[in-house]
């Protein structure tokens, strides 16, 4: 799990680099009808917050964790929750939450298996994190494409 958690933690470095980018660039849509970098980081933060509060505390042997929320609704809630936050605050909140989430995930015994939302698939802490490593990669690609444009 260390390798996976290291990858998960590397997103912190990528997000911290954004502090060197102008607020204007961080707040403009990455393309028409899409989120801004600010909103993407907020989206990542809101998922971390959800996992930290609702999922990780329940990760014990044979547990059935709640199903993931409807993605569209969850994302809409994230944007509402973050509307009054500055881009700097969102970045700082992401960093603090990602560090805490990584610490909590690292403390889950590697042999623990659980399901999500009544599903049959057994997850470990590591396979759970891999979902979000892929999610990070998708959004980091979007961010980097915007920064390179």
TrEMBL record:
Domain of life: Bacteria
Every DinB-like domain range: 10-143
Xref: Pfam families: DinB_2 (PF12867)
SUPFAM superfamilies, sorted: DinB/YfiT-like putative metalloenzymes
InterPro entries documented for this protein: DinB-like (IPR024775), DinB/YfiT-like (IPR034660)
Protein name: DinB family protein
């Amino acid at each position: 799990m260390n390798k996976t958690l290291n990858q998960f933690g590397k997103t912190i470095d990528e997000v911290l680099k954004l502090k060197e980018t102008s607020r204007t660039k961080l707040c403009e849509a990455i393309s028409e009808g899409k989120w801004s970098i600010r909103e993407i980081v907020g989206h990542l933060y809101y998922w971390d917050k959800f996992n930290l509060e609702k999922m990780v505390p329940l990760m014990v042997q044979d547990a059935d964790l709640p199903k993931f929320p409807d993605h569209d609704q969850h994302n809409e809630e994230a944007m509402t929750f973050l509307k009054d936050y500055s881009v700097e605050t969102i970045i700082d909140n992401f960093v603090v939450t990602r560090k805490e989430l990584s610490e909590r995930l690292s403390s889950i015994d590697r042999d623990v298996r659980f399901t999500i939302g009544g599903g049959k698939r057994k997850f470990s802490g590591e396979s759970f994190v891999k979902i979000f490593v892929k999610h990070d990669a998708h959004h980091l690609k979007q961010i980097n494409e915007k920064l390179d444009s």
